[in-house]
Write a structure and sequence with these properties.
It is built from seven helices and ten strands. By secondary structure, the protein is an alpha/beta fold. The N and C termini lie far apart (63 Å). Belongs to the GMC oxidoreductase family.
């Protein structure tokens, strides 16, 4: 028995060492150049996508500016999400004091976790993904209907490794049958989707910033430089000095 425990311990320590030594993004710089074609402020979910798409342009330099740091190995494991809340990787927002809800919470306030670092909240959320219903797009402008966006949805699905739960799962089957039993037009049930790749968290961050242990997953011509600001010292003037 002790042999199995020892082997498990060695494997665990080796995994932690590997992620600690080689999990750091390779595109972080300390001294940005004085000129870039594009500067994207904020390396959250949207910022990473914008920087990634801009970097597809030939002969283009992109600087991605982020006030936080980079998420450690824990963010890769979906079950570790609760442990990152309230840490240095979380902006740790609080709601205003509530009058009619949150009565069982301190000061009647709810926590509002938001990711502070490369990848933003996508690095610490619970990976739930949805494109919404086709009816949600009926009031959108021409060219932005659900049908018009399907090609883009497919690209996002491939890039973000969006996976839908199988109907063979008994819990999913029971959930979908509930819609029939309720028999109401006001209740619409959909199978859940999530973003994971080979059991690991997969976010828009990985479309923009390769890591040492996954460089083969990214086109070699992509180059995005990432500059991390000290969140405790960030100000509008310091940001303007950087991009001026």
């Amino acid at each position: 028995m002790w042999t199995y425990i020892l082997i498990s311990f060695v494997v665990l320590m080796s995994s932690l060492f590997y992620h600690y030594q080689f999990g750091k993004p390779i595109g972080i710089i300390e001294n940005p150049n004085s000129y870039y074609d594009y500067i994207v402020v904020g390396a959250g979910t949207t910022g990473c996508v914008i920087a990634s798409r801009l970097s597809d342009l030939s002969n283009t330099t992109v600087l991605l500016v982020e006030a936080g740091g980079y998420f450690n190995w824990m963010s890769v494991m979906p079950l570790m999400a609760p442990l990152m809340q309230g840490s240095s990787l979380d902006w740790a927002y609080k709601t205003e004091t509530q009058k009619f809800s949150s009565l069982g919470l301190w000061s009647h306030q709810q926590s509002w976790p938001r990711g502070k670092g490369l990848g933003g909240s996508g690095q610490m959320n619970y990976l739930v993904h949805s494109f919404g219903r086709s009816e949600d797009y009926e009031t959108w402008p021409k060219g932005w209907s659900y049908g018009d966006l399907i090609p883009h949805f497919k690209k996002v699905t491939e890039t973000m490794s969006v996976t839908t739960f199988s109907s063979d799962d008994p819990l999913v089957a029971a959930f979908m049958e509930a819609e029939i039993s309720i028999g109401s037009n006001d209740a619409i049930f959909q199978k859940g989707s999530y973003t994971a790749k080979r059991g690991n968290r997969w976010t828009s961050f990985y479309t923009a910033e390769p890591r040492r242990f996954a460089r083969d997953d990214f086109p070699k011509e992509k180059e995005i430089r990432t500059f991390l600001l000290d969140a405790s010292k960030i100000s509008l003037s310091s940001l303007l000095d950087l991009i001026a």
